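Notes to self, 3865_t:CDS:1:
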Amino acid sequence: MTRIWRQRESLSSAEDKKPSTGPRFGIDFEVGRTLTLRPDYIVRGVVVLTILEDENPLCVCDVMIRFKAEESVLAKFKDAAGLPLQESIKSTIFDCSEFIWSGAHEIQGVNMQGGDYCPWEELSAGVYHFPFAVKLPPVNFPPSIEGPKGFSIRYTWQPVLRTAGGTYIEGPALVTPFVPTTFAPPAEDWVYKKTLYKTSKDLTKKKELIDVEAVLLGNVFAPGDELSFTLRLTNHFNGRITFVHCSLRKHLEGPLDKDYPCENHERSLVSTERRCNIPSQKTDEIRFSLTIPRKHRHVPPAYTGRHIRVHYTLRCVIQAEIGKVLTKMQCHEIIIPITLASYAHITLENCVLPTYLTHEELKLEPFFFDPLQDFPPDDRIHFGDDYYMYENNLVLSQVNGYLYDHLNALDGESSTRSPNSGSGSGMCSEYSIGEWNIDSFTLASSVGSTDRVEQSAFARQILGNHM
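result:
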């Protein structure tokens, strides 16, 4: 299917009636505005500039796009006088930008004439499209996190337009989530044991109340997994256990800087409960099952950054009843630590699951390349500011087609052929997107009747006997 993008388009009568508010421009991705970033991924799109018919022509020197990842946290503290203060702490993960169009017609490069005297071109009323392409390195950047106010890890795109005279106009920032590629290890029975005691004023004397033994199928899970476990309770006190409530909880801690007090924001994701009747000196087993939310934006993988830490726990509250005539209720709590990865473990013959180093271990950054090309020049990745290294020299495993089929089934998605952008550079009066002529797959998921469709393209490599 071919889409035609024109330099000038007649604007609707509804738009003509709107009051003139100056040029409007933003970013449209090839897969739609709903986009999920992953390691070793190519992003294609256009910067769309709209000039209404009742507006004056716009003198444009160049159009730039900025791609930035930032970790931020809000620190709350008190000054010497005891007054509450707050400070926003930010750390840049990467910040890259590129001129995608120039009035001097030097595309995909910095203008040779800088400053306020760079050439410009007069753009009349119409809709203009400036294509771009970005290659993400095979690196696990931090997961996108949206926490309480001031707590976030965001990957933002922003178009910037420079007019004659050096005036900059910034377009609206667009946030896209990033999901690192991490897999849970093979499931094995994992036992967590803890004894609950009754303490007195004499701390040397402790009386056993309940022996708790939790049996889980591992301690690392993934979004969409069924978290099934068994609680084995032994009652040692003179009463009975009547009720158990279990919940999966998400913890967001920050700031981690030693100069500021650290806050712990806790949220219950999913919970379940069971009634029981375990008398004194008896042991019984209770089985529980929780479904971890499927959306990565709700349950990002466990991560510890420079300012933010996100981790998960399984909280079990045991309710006990003491006395026969005048009963007294007691509640005891145990916290079981668990870890979430991006994807569940997949067992395949003649296939190695992909492993990516973190951005701290391998200092790689995304980089822009000519959108006319299907792939970056020489299939290379950007290494810092002055060096390049080839992907073939990296010890990185590629995912084969069977792995993608498994991920499609996990997310309830269908595997189809993916279109590729044979995009052109610069401002085009007529622009088309053709079909890919390479063997590839697409993960496509409908996120709602009114939402766009999310697509992520991957190259397929068949290993071993499947060649």
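- The chain is about 5% helix and 50% strand.
- The chain has two domains: 4-181+353-466, 189-340.
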